[in-house]
Write a structure and sequence with these properties.
The protein is about 30% helix and about 25% strand. It has about 325 residues and is an alpha/beta fold. It has 2 domains: about 5-125 and about 250-320, FAD/NAD(P)-binding domain (3-Layer(bba) Sandwich), CATH 3.50.50.60; about 130-250, FAD/NAD(P)-binding domain, CATH 3.50.50. Strands 1, 2, 3, 4, 5, 6 and 17 form a 7-stranded mixed β-sheet that branches. Strands 8-15-9-10-11 form a 5-stranded parallel β-sheet. Strand 9 (about 165), helix 6 and strand 10 (about 190) form a beta-alpha-beta unit. Helix 1 (about 15-25) packs parallel to helix 3 and helix 6 runs parallel beside helix 7. It is elongated. The protein binds flavin-adenine dinucleotide. Flavin-adenine dinucleotide binds near residues 14, 15, 65, 93 and 150.
């Protein structure tokens, strides 16, 4: 029997993937949807986001991305568009190739192979965690309670009136410290966690001007005054720093493996380059969300990319039918 060829395949089930699936079915196009295995989900940002305060109408959710995403998928499954959604729950994609006829071949974590005309890649990124005494585990208690934060735009406002630390050693981390200080006028310590500081001249001048405390010793422990509420950071020389909140700024792991398999153009940090509609250097391969190069890494930007990609694909589908 001839293999079914789906119109659109969406890979990744975070903010970008769910919006891409929603927009695709609302455009009345077929959507083959692989939100990822439990292991993929654990590595995603969607899974770790708790309270979303920087977007209207999100405060009631305990898990600010996962909960509304589940609601949305359930709504599609109950709607008149349910027959357009081919959801493969807990399934990820392990490889992606393009046939000579231009179709994408998609191999899943279950070793099944599917075909689609268009792919929207939404596999996201992950923040690099500091390794403390050989493990990233000590961070989680504080990250879950958001006294350890990662994103300046999402959570920068948490520092107001608080003793703040930033873990990182390069200009990117120092810019986080500078922006937090300039916006919220808080005292800042930069913790290089055993690394040498590597700053541009402009950044170095601002770090000196604002008299940031620089601590280069390795971090050996985190203390809380109650569960999740950070109060002290311990260092290997036996010193301690009293802090209320800490930002981690060590860079990102970019999940670009599937884009690389197809030879899509990447920027120097590994993000996938695309035009404004989200189409990559590989025809009919689109990217949305944090994985897309040169974009703000936020829920609402992921939504916007996903809508642009699904609409561009729909335009191509409609043109072919004319
Ligand atoms: C702690 C924290 C707090 C944040 N708070 C906010 C906030 O308050 N407001 C805001 O706007 N933004 C916030 N962000 C940023 C926001 O989480 C991201 O911008 C958003 O999640 C990006 O969505 P995405 O779909 O690109 O990626 P993700 O949400 O990371 O989703 C990636 C998806 O890809 C799937 N996947 C990965 N590999 C595969 C594969 N091979 N096959 C199939 N699926 C795969 C995963 O399962 C996952 O579903 C926060 C981020 C962090 C880390």
């Amino acid at each position: 029997m001839e293999k079914k060829i789906y119109q659109v395949c969406v890979i990744g089930g975070g903010s970008a993937g769910v919006m891409a699936a929603l927009r695709t079915v609302l455009n009345n196009d077929e959507c083959l949807f692989f939100p990822g295995t439990p292991k993929d989900k654990k590595k995603s940002r969607a899974m770790w986001v708790r309270r979303v305060e920087n977007m209207p109408a999100h405060l009631e959710y305990k898990r600010g991305i996962e909960d509304p995403n589940l609601e949305t998928i359930k709504w599609i499954q109950d709607s008149e568009f349910k027959n357009k959604l081919y959801l493969h729950k807990n399934v990820g994609v392990t490889s992606l190739s393009k046939r000579s006829d231009g179709m994408f071949e998609i191999t899943t974590s279950k070793n099944e192979v599917y075909c689609a005309h268009y792919v929207i890649l939404c596999t996201g990124v992950m923040d690099v965690q500091p390794i403390i005494n050989g493990s990233i585990e000590p961070i989680f208690e504080y990250a879950n309670a958001q006294t350890m934060d990662y994103c300046l735009i999402c959570d920068g406002h948490h520092v107001l009136g608080k003793n703040t630390a930033v873990i990182g050693h390069n200009s990117g981390a120092a810019w986080v410290a500078i922006m937090l200080h300039e916006r919220y006028e808080v005292p800042i310590s930069i913790l290089t966690h055993g690394e040498e500081l590597n700053l541009s001249d402009e950044v170095e001048a601002l770090v000196e001007k604002y008299k940031f405390k620089i601590i280069k010793e390795k971090i050996t422990g985190l203390q809380g005054k109650e569960r999740g509420i950070l109060s002290q950071i311990d260092f290997e020389n036996g010193h301690h720093l009293k802090v209320d909140i800490c930002f981690v700024s060590l860079g990102m792991i970019v999940y670009n493996e599937l884009a690389r398999m197809l030879g899509a153009d990447l920027d120097e940090r590994g993000f996938v380059k695309a035009n404004t509609a989200g189409e990559t250097s590989v025809a009919n391969l689109y990217v949305a969300g944090d994985l897309k190069a040169n974009t703000r890494k936020q829920i609402y930007t992921a939504w916007d990319h996903a809508v642009s990609a699904a609409n561009d694909i729909n335009q191509k589908i409609r043109k072919l039918r004319r």
